[in-house]
């Protein structure tokens, strides 16, 4: 099926110079992972009830309930229930530190300072937590959109629109356009996303180490670089690939 597509759906005179390995499942999983995180952090930004559930007092009550249930399950004696009529002050002072920590030790001093700092900064949580969750939502959304769109699946050299058939046969390198195929945003599409750019706008790093597992290039006025994985890739025409991305090597 891929061979059929190459013969009947490609542009006349086009030359394929790179075809990456099939990583659709991996990048689709990555896209869904980023999309799930985006929805999660966006929901936490607008739903503030989760913050009350994570406060120390509520967590301690839930932990005590789980401990009591486990003791009952294995037949161990359980602690006597606490009297709610003692008030919040008695409850807070009943167990200042975990068992095994001396109140005069260095760790207890640091815990006391940490709790005091937490109480002082609690009034800023209503502003800081929405900002923090919003930044995480934006970061994961941008990662899911841009990363699969910058991983190259296939590169094809296409002759320019003003080049005739005789020019293609006489010119050593008549190609003027580069067709780039990527996975698209969140890699949700099975078909690649294609777009064409002039070769004059394509640039590659001059001093790129050859032992890397990927190559990269960038296009003028397009944010973020494109990534080509070498593992499992097929370089159909190494000569055209070299003169396209590394023309300075040919002039040496």
UniProtKB/TrEMBL annotation:
Q: Which UniProt keywords apply?
A: Membrane, Transmembrane, Transmembrane helix
Q: Which domain of life is it from?
A: Eukaryota
- Transmembrane residues, as ranges? 26-47, 127-147
The protein's name: Transmembrane protein
Name the source organism: Fasciolopsis buskii
